[in-house]
Write a structure and sequence with these properties.
With about 325 residues, the chain is an all-alpha fold. It contains 17 helices and no strands. About 20% of the residues are buried. This is F-box only protein 8.
């Protein structure tokens, strides 16, 4: 990505110079046809006809005068604010490569701090007073190493973070780290949360389902806490915790529609079964809207027919709630 930025700027510079050469040649030929003696000493070498912007880049590179005069833009020649802004678009790998050329700019702590916080949104070490000589570049490497360790063994990964002082041994801190991190393997994360129900409880409370439609809230929930592939005790635990959290975030909806944690629990299972029915290629006879309303209201009689119908429409138009 970094090289692409330089190529764009370099190509624009070459195209501008090439256009100037073409216009100058046109003026020379025009004066020569008019018979002016001013061009007697000028060379008669013809240059290719000027092209519109976007001319052959290989030709532009061949006509450049010299590497020293026509070299790429040096970031150290730019204002520091502009140079840092350009490098902030690089990922960690490209930034390491850039530091080989611009050592001071590529090792800037501001850039590595942004990479750490954009990849791992919450760490306990962010909220502590950092010691002198602290390096965000070294922290990035430790966070990356810990994430790889977690994806191989969750317990060892969390232990690694604690041994480096990155995380504090507290369920809420671990839950925040998991909630704001996207580099953790969801299968290993499911194993860890199944063993650490205290962390799972804190992770559920981090979700805010206020003013969200039930299927959309369930999708958001399973986006952070992946549903198991088979029905079992862990799935029941997840849906139970989600039901209580959804009702706690929507007290007005609970009173208006007549929802309760038990009713939301039933609706969630109905939505999961409907998602499988409508999206699976192995199911030939898809469940109709009328059938879904009838079957769901048998289990949740207090829910209105219109509300259940909207649930069906959402799954039919958007898709699986646990995809």
């Amino acid at each position: 990505m970094g090289q692409s930025l330089w190529r764009v700027a370099r190509n624009q510079q070459l195209q501008q110079q090439y256009s100037e050469q073409c216009f100058l040649q046109r003026d020379r030929e025009h004066v020569r046809r008019m018979g002016s003696p001013l061009v007697e000493g000028l060379p008669q070498r013809r240059t290719p006809q000027c092209q519109v912007p976007g001319a052959d880049i290989s030709h532009l590179l061949r006509v450049r005068k010299g590497k020293a005069e026509q070299g790429f833009i040096d970031l150290e020649m730019l204002p520091p604010e502009l140079s840092i802004t350009i490098l902030s678009y690089l990922n960690a790998t490209d930034l390491c490569l850039a530091s080989c050329v611009w050592q001071d700019l590529g090792s800037d702590e501001y850039l590595w701090q942004g990479l750490c916080k954009s990849t791992w949104g919450h760490c306990s070490i962010y909220n502590r007073r950092l010691p002198s000589g602290f390096s965000y570049r070294r922290l990035y490497l430790e966070l990356d190493e810990g994430s790889l360790t977690f994806n191989a063994n969750p317990q060892e990964g969390i232990s690694y973070f604690m041994s480096r002082g990155i995380l504090v041994e507290h369920p809420k801190e671990i839950a925040k780290f998991i909630f704001y991190t996207r580099m953790l393997n969801w299968k290993m994360l499911r194993i860890y949360l199944d063993e650490r129900r205290d962390v799972l409880d804190e992770l559920v409370t981090l979700h805010n389902f206020s003013n969200q439609f039930l299927p959309n809230a369930l999708r958001d929930f399973f986006r952070h806490i992946h549903a198991p592939e088979e029905r079992g005790e862990y799935l029941e635990t997840l849906i139970t915790k989600f039901s209580h959290r959804f009702c706690a975030c929507n007290p007005a909806l609970v009173q208006e529609v007549g929802l309760s944690p038990d009713a939301v629990y039933v609706l969630c299972y109905s939505l999961i079964l409907l998602s499988i029915d409508l999206t699976s290629p192995h199911v030939k006879n898809k469940m109709s809207k009328r059938e879904f309303i009838r079957n769901t209201r048998r289990a949740a009689q207090n829910i209105s027919e219109d509300f259940v119908g909207h649930l069906y429409d959402n799954i039919y138009l958007i898709g699986h709630v646990a995809a």
